[in-house]
Specification:
- The protein is an alpha/beta fold and 238 residues long.
- Strands 1, 2, 3, 4, 8, 9, 10 and 11 form an 8-stranded mixed beta sheet that branches. It has a 3-stranded antiparallel beta sheet with strand order 5-7-6.
- It is globular.
- The chain has 7 helices and 11 strands.
- Helix 5 packs across helix 6.
- The termini are far apart.
Length: 238
């Protein structure tokens, strides 16, 4: 009988190894799998390449993972935001690498990776430093840059509802990169606010089918990233 539910966040991330490439969902706080990231900090895997929309905020979640020197390289669209304090400092010191990718291009590179598309052409970044060294072609007389699809060893994703098969529903903006990251990763690990019995999710409204998900852990009351930042909290908890 298929059952992808695991008992804890620590069990969910236990298979992540040193040097892994990990996709992490989130659009600011929305959809950020804080509990899974904190479990990864406790797990201790290092030399990671992380693909995410940004580099985290404050000293929790992804920012805490970076601050704990477990991330070797970030592939993201927004390395610096209003509450981003950890990554900019480490980057200026040369202690972490960065691959900057426009947000739409990042989403499409992940989608392409999950769909088995090795590369595609986009007009985004033409005549900018981000196009340097990349293949260019003309289509209908207009220049386009070739970008490669992205795959990952793991994806850490947050959703609203899941069942034991791994079928997922998301909450509005918290959906963001989650579905395509599940498709593009060899092992998608999901924290769900609610786990329901098989058959309780209408198949017609499933966003991510369970075939793309390896593990699900129920986190009934996920922490609020914004609240933790306002309280100036740090992980590991002081």
């Amino acid at each position: 009988m298929i059952n992808k539910i695991v008992k804890s966040a620590s069990e969910a991330v236990s298979g992540i190894f040193d040097g892994a490439t990990i996709m992490i969902s989130g659009f600011g706080e929305a959809g950020s799998p804080i509990e899974l990231i904190h479990a990864l900090i406790d797990h201790g895997a290092k030399d990671l390449t992380v693909i995410s929309n940004n580099t985290g905020n404050g000293h929790i979640g992804l920012a805490a993972l970076i601050e704990n020197k477990q991330v070797r390289k970030m592939i993201c669209s927004f390395p610096r935001t209003a509450n981003s304090v950890v990554f900019p400092e480490l980057y200026r010191k040369g202690e972490i690498d960065l691959e900057l990718v426009p947000q739409g291009t990042l989403a499409e590179r992940i989608r392409a990776g999950g769909a088995g598309i090795p590369a595609f052409f986009t007009p985004t970044s033409v005549n900018t430093p981000l196009a340097e060294g990349k293949e260019m072609r003309l289509f209908d007389g207009k220049p386009y840059v070739m970008e490669f699809g992205i795959k990952a060893d793991f994806a850490l994703v947050k959703c609203r509802i899941a069942d034991r098969y791994g079928n997922l529903l998301f909450n509005k903006t918290a959906r963001n990169f989650g579905p395509v990251m599940c498709m593009a990763a060899s092992h998608a690990i999901v924290q769900a606010s609610q786990v329901v019995e098989t058959g309780e999710i209408d198949p017609e409204i499933v966003v991510t089918p369970g075939i793309f998900v390896k593990k699900v852990v129920e986190i009934a009351n996920p922490v609020s990233e914004n609240q933790l930042i306002r309280e100036n909290r740090r992980y590991p908890w002081a």
